[in-house]
Amino acid sequence: MTATSRGAFIVIEGLDRSGKSTQAAILQSRLQGPEQSTTKAVLIKFPDRTTTIGKMIDAYLRSQSEFDDHAIHLLFSANRWELASTIYAHLAAGTTVIADRYAFSGIAFSARKGLSYDWCRAPDIGLPAPDLTLFLNVEPGVARTRGGYGEERYETEDVQRSVRVVFERIGEEMKTDGQGQWVEIDASREKDLVARNIWRVVEPLSRGVASSLRKLWERDLTT
Ligand code: DGP
Questions:
Q1: I need a surface site. Which of 5, 53, 137, 205 has the fewest CB within 10 A?
Q2: Is residue 1 pLDDT above 70, yes or no?
Protein backbone atom coordinates (compact mmCIF):
# COMPACT_ATOMS: atom_id res chain seq x y z
CA MET A 1 0.00 0.00 0.00
CA THR A 2 1.33 3.49 -0.83
CA ALA A 3 0.99 6.45 1.54
CA THR A 4 -2.05 7.82 -0.29
CA SER A 5 -3.93 4.60 -0.99
CA ARG A 6 -6.79 2.89 0.81
CA GLY A 7 -7.88 -0.71 1.11
CA ALA A 8 -9.85 -2.31 -1.71
CA PHE A 9 -13.51 -3.20 -1.32
CA ILE A 10 -14.22 -6.59 -2.87
CA VAL A 11 -17.65 -8.20 -2.98
CA ILE A 12 -18.34 -11.87 -3.66
CA GLU A 13 -21.81 -12.65 -4.97
CA GLY A 14 -23.55 -15.72 -6.27
CA LEU A 15 -26.32 -18.22 -5.75
CA ASP A 16 -26.63 -20.22 -2.55
CA ARG A 17 -23.94 -22.95 -2.41
CA SER A 18 -21.90 -21.36 -5.18
CA GLY A 19 -18.85 -21.47 -2.89
CA LYS A 20 -18.83 -17.81 -1.83
CA SER A 21 -17.97 -18.35 1.81
CA THR A 22 -15.23 -20.89 1.03
CA GLN A 23 -13.67 -18.62 -1.59
CA ALA A 24 -13.99 -15.53 0.62
CA ALA A 25 -12.05 -17.32 3.36
CA ILE A 26 -9.36 -18.50 0.93
CA LEU A 27 -9.05 -14.99 -0.44
CA GLN A 28 -8.79 -13.44 3.00
CA SER A 29 -5.95 -15.74 4.03
CA ARG A 30 -4.16 -15.10 0.74
CA LEU A 31 -4.45 -11.33 1.23
CA GLN A 32 -3.44 -11.61 4.85
CA GLY A 33 -0.16 -13.28 3.89
CA PRO A 34 2.36 -14.82 6.27
CA GLU A 35 2.74 -11.88 8.71
CA GLN A 36 -0.33 -11.91 10.89
CA SER A 37 0.74 -8.87 12.93
CA THR A 38 -1.10 -6.32 10.79
CA THR A 39 -4.63 -6.80 9.51
CA LYS A 40 -4.57 -6.57 5.75
CA ALA A 41 -7.97 -8.07 5.01
CA VAL A 42 -11.24 -8.47 6.87
CA LEU A 43 -14.22 -10.55 5.91
CA ILE A 44 -17.76 -9.28 6.40
CA LYS A 45 -20.66 -11.58 5.76
CA PHE A 46 -24.11 -10.31 4.74
CA PRO A 47 -26.54 -10.78 6.25
CA ASP A 48 -24.60 -10.17 9.46
CA ARG A 49 -26.79 -12.30 11.71
CA THR A 50 -25.18 -11.07 14.95
CA THR A 51 -26.85 -7.63 15.12
CA THR A 52 -30.40 -7.00 16.35
CA ILE A 53 -31.59 -6.61 12.75
CA GLY A 54 -29.49 -9.60 11.71
CA LYS A 55 -31.20 -11.79 14.29
CA MET A 56 -34.60 -10.88 12.80
CA ILE A 57 -33.29 -11.80 9.34
CA ASP A 58 -31.87 -15.06 10.65
CA ALA A 59 -35.22 -16.08 12.15
CA TYR A 60 -36.92 -15.27 8.84
CA LEU A 61 -34.42 -17.28 6.79
CA ARG A 62 -34.88 -20.26 9.08
CA SER A 63 -38.67 -19.89 8.63
CA GLN A 64 -39.14 -19.16 12.33
CA SER A 65 -40.83 -15.83 11.56
CA GLU A 66 -42.69 -14.19 8.70
CA PHE A 67 -42.39 -10.69 7.22
CA ASP A 68 -44.01 -8.80 4.41
CA ASP A 69 -41.67 -9.05 1.37
CA HIS A 70 -41.04 -5.28 1.41
CA ALA A 71 -40.31 -5.24 5.15
CA ILE A 72 -37.75 -8.04 5.00
CA HIS A 73 -36.12 -6.39 1.98
CA LEU A 74 -35.64 -3.20 3.99
CA LEU A 75 -34.24 -5.14 6.94
CA PHE A 76 -31.60 -6.75 4.72
CA SER A 77 -30.69 -3.28 3.42
CA ALA A 78 -30.62 -1.81 6.94
CA ASN A 79 -28.26 -4.63 7.91
CA ARG A 80 -25.85 -3.43 5.21
CA TRP A 81 -26.20 0.22 6.25
CA GLU A 82 -25.46 -0.58 9.88
CA LEU A 83 -22.06 -1.93 8.78
CA ALA A 84 -21.25 0.85 6.30
CA SER A 85 -19.22 2.86 8.82
CA THR A 86 -17.18 -0.25 9.69
CA ILE A 87 -16.43 -0.77 5.98
CA TYR A 88 -15.35 2.87 5.59
CA ALA A 89 -13.10 2.67 8.65
CA HIS A 90 -11.33 -0.49 7.47
CA LEU A 91 -10.76 0.87 3.98
CA ALA A 92 -9.42 4.17 5.30
CA ALA A 93 -6.99 2.22 7.50
CA GLY A 94 -5.67 0.48 4.38
CA THR A 95 -7.39 -2.83 5.11
CA THR A 96 -9.00 -4.73 2.25
CA VAL A 97 -12.66 -5.55 2.93
CA ILE A 98 -14.16 -8.71 1.46
CA ALA A 99 -17.95 -8.82 1.63
CA ASP A 100 -19.62 -12.20 1.28
CA ARG A 101 -22.82 -10.96 -0.46
CA TYR A 102 -23.94 -7.35 -0.73
CA ALA A 103 -26.66 -5.16 -2.22
CA PHE A 104 -26.81 -7.26 -5.39
CA SER A 105 -28.19 -10.21 -3.43
CA GLY A 106 -30.71 -7.75 -2.02
CA ILE A 107 -32.05 -6.95 -5.47
CA ALA A 108 -31.84 -10.49 -6.82
CA PHE A 109 -33.64 -12.26 -3.97
CA SER A 110 -36.43 -9.67 -3.68
CA ALA A 111 -37.01 -8.79 -7.35
CA ARG A 112 -37.53 -12.49 -8.08
CA LYS A 113 -40.53 -12.34 -5.76
CA GLY A 114 -42.11 -9.78 -8.10
CA LEU A 115 -41.07 -6.58 -6.35
CA SER A 116 -39.99 -3.83 -8.73
CA TYR A 117 -36.29 -3.89 -9.63
CA ASP A 118 -35.90 -0.14 -9.08
CA TRP A 119 -37.72 -0.28 -5.76
CA CYS A 120 -35.40 -3.09 -4.64
CA ARG A 121 -32.30 -1.13 -5.63
CA ALA A 122 -33.36 2.15 -3.99
CA PRO A 123 -32.57 1.54 -0.29
CA ASP A 124 -28.97 0.53 -1.11
CA ILE A 125 -28.20 3.62 -3.20
CA GLY A 126 -25.29 5.44 -1.56
CA LEU A 127 -23.69 2.49 0.23
CA PRO A 128 -19.91 2.17 -0.21
CA ALA A 129 -19.38 0.95 -3.78
CA PRO A 130 -17.21 -2.11 -4.33
CA ASP A 131 -14.08 -1.73 -6.44
CA LEU A 132 -14.64 -5.26 -7.68
CA THR A 133 -17.58 -7.67 -7.58
CA LEU A 134 -16.90 -11.33 -8.26
CA PHE A 135 -20.01 -13.20 -9.34
CA LEU A 136 -19.53 -16.92 -8.71
CA ASN A 137 -21.60 -18.42 -11.46
CA VAL A 138 -22.90 -21.94 -11.02
CA GLU A 139 -25.79 -23.86 -12.56
CA PRO A 140 -28.57 -24.06 -9.94
CA GLY A 141 -28.70 -27.82 -10.59
CA VAL A 142 -25.02 -28.12 -9.59
CA ALA A 143 -25.47 -25.96 -6.47
CA ARG A 144 -28.36 -28.20 -5.39
CA THR A 145 -26.05 -31.20 -5.10
CA ARG A 146 -23.69 -29.41 -2.69
CA GLY A 147 -23.73 -30.02 1.09
CA GLY A 148 -26.26 -28.27 3.34
CA TYR A 149 -28.56 -27.29 0.47
CA GLY A 150 -32.24 -26.91 1.28
CA GLU A 151 -31.88 -25.94 4.93
CA GLU A 152 -33.09 -22.37 4.50
CA ARG A 153 -36.02 -20.53 2.97
CA TYR A 154 -34.61 -19.68 -0.47
CA GLU A 155 -32.73 -22.92 -1.10
CA THR A 156 -34.83 -24.49 -3.82
CA GLU A 157 -33.73 -24.91 -7.41
CA ASP A 158 -36.74 -22.97 -8.61
CA VAL A 159 -35.96 -19.92 -6.46
CA GLN A 160 -32.26 -20.05 -7.35
CA ARG A 161 -33.04 -20.16 -11.08
CA SER A 162 -35.13 -17.01 -10.87
CA VAL A 163 -32.54 -15.31 -8.64
CA ARG A 164 -29.89 -16.08 -11.25
CA VAL A 165 -31.93 -14.34 -13.95
CA VAL A 166 -31.97 -11.13 -11.88
CA PHE A 167 -28.22 -11.45 -11.16
CA GLU A 168 -27.64 -11.64 -14.93
CA ARG A 169 -29.51 -8.36 -15.39
CA ILE A 170 -27.53 -6.72 -12.57
CA GLY A 171 -24.26 -7.97 -14.11
CA GLU A 172 -25.14 -6.51 -17.51
CA GLU A 173 -25.98 -3.15 -15.95
CA MET A 174 -22.88 -3.09 -13.79
CA LYS A 175 -20.68 -3.86 -16.80
CA THR A 176 -22.14 -1.01 -18.84
CA ASP A 177 -22.46 1.82 -16.34
CA GLY A 178 -18.92 2.09 -14.97
CA GLN A 179 -19.87 1.00 -11.44
CA GLY A 180 -16.59 -0.70 -10.58
CA GLN A 181 -15.65 -4.02 -12.10
CA TRP A 182 -18.12 -6.93 -12.29
CA VAL A 183 -16.33 -10.19 -13.06
CA GLU A 184 -17.97 -13.54 -13.56
CA ILE A 185 -16.11 -16.60 -12.26
CA ASP A 186 -17.03 -20.14 -13.26
CA ALA A 187 -17.78 -21.61 -9.84
CA SER A 188 -18.62 -25.08 -11.12
CA ARG A 189 -14.87 -25.75 -11.39
CA GLU A 190 -12.66 -27.34 -8.77
CA LYS A 191 -12.14 -25.24 -5.60
CA ASP A 192 -8.42 -24.49 -6.10
CA LEU A 193 -8.91 -23.49 -9.72
CA VAL A 194 -11.73 -21.12 -8.74
CA ALA A 195 -9.44 -19.64 -6.06
CA ARG A 196 -6.65 -19.12 -8.63
CA ASN A 197 -9.03 -17.45 -11.07
CA ILE A 198 -10.25 -15.16 -8.30
CA TRP A 199 -6.71 -14.28 -7.26
CA ARG A 200 -5.81 -13.30 -10.82
CA VAL A 201 -8.48 -10.58 -10.70
CA VAL A 202 -7.91 -9.51 -7.10
CA GLU A 203 -4.10 -9.41 -7.13
CA PRO A 204 -3.85 -5.96 -8.78
CA LEU A 205 -5.96 -4.51 -5.95
CA SER A 206 -4.08 -6.26 -3.17
CA ARG A 207 -1.56 -3.45 -2.65
CA GLY A 208 -4.25 -0.82 -2.16
CA VAL A 209 -6.32 1.49 -4.34
CA ALA A 210 -5.34 5.07 -5.17
CA SER A 211 -8.75 6.35 -6.29
CA SER A 212 -11.28 7.53 -3.75
CA LEU A 213 -14.09 5.24 -2.74
CA ARG A 214 -17.32 5.72 -4.66
CA LYS A 215 -20.91 5.36 -3.58
CA LEU A 216 -23.12 2.68 -4.99
CA TRP A 217 -25.31 3.95 -7.85
CA GLU A 218 -24.16 7.45 -6.89
CA ARG A 219 -25.68 9.12 -9.94
CA ASP A 220 -29.08 8.36 -8.37
CA LEU A 221 -28.20 10.21 -5.19
CA THR A 222 -30.00 13.48 -4.97
CA THR A 223 -29.87 15.88 -2.08
P1 DGP B 1 -26.13 -16.88 3.24
O2 DGP B 1 -25.93 -16.64 4.72
O3 DGP B 1 -25.05 -16.26 2.39
O4 DGP B 1 -26.46 -18.31 2.91
O5 DGP B 1 -27.44 -16.02 2.85
C6 DGP B 1 -28.65 -16.28 3.44
C7 DGP B 1 -29.78 -16.23 2.48
O8 DGP B 1 -30.28 -14.89 2.44
C9 DGP B 1 -29.52 -16.63 1.07
O10 DGP B 1 -30.56 -17.51 0.65
C11 DGP B 1 -29.57 -15.37 0.28
C12 DGP B 1 -30.46 -14.49 1.09
N13 DGP B 1 -30.12 -13.08 1.01
C14 DGP B 1 -28.91 -12.52 1.20
N15 DGP B 1 -29.00 -11.18 1.12
C16 DGP B 1 -30.29 -10.90 0.88
C17 DGP B 1 -31.00 -9.68 0.71
O18 DGP B 1 -30.46 -8.59 0.78
N19 DGP B 1 -32.35 -9.80 0.50
C20 DGP B 1 -32.98 -11.00 0.46
N21 DGP B 1 -34.30 -11.01 0.26
N22 DGP B 1 -32.34 -12.17 0.59
C23 DGP B 1 -31.01 -12.12 0.80
A1: 5
A2: no
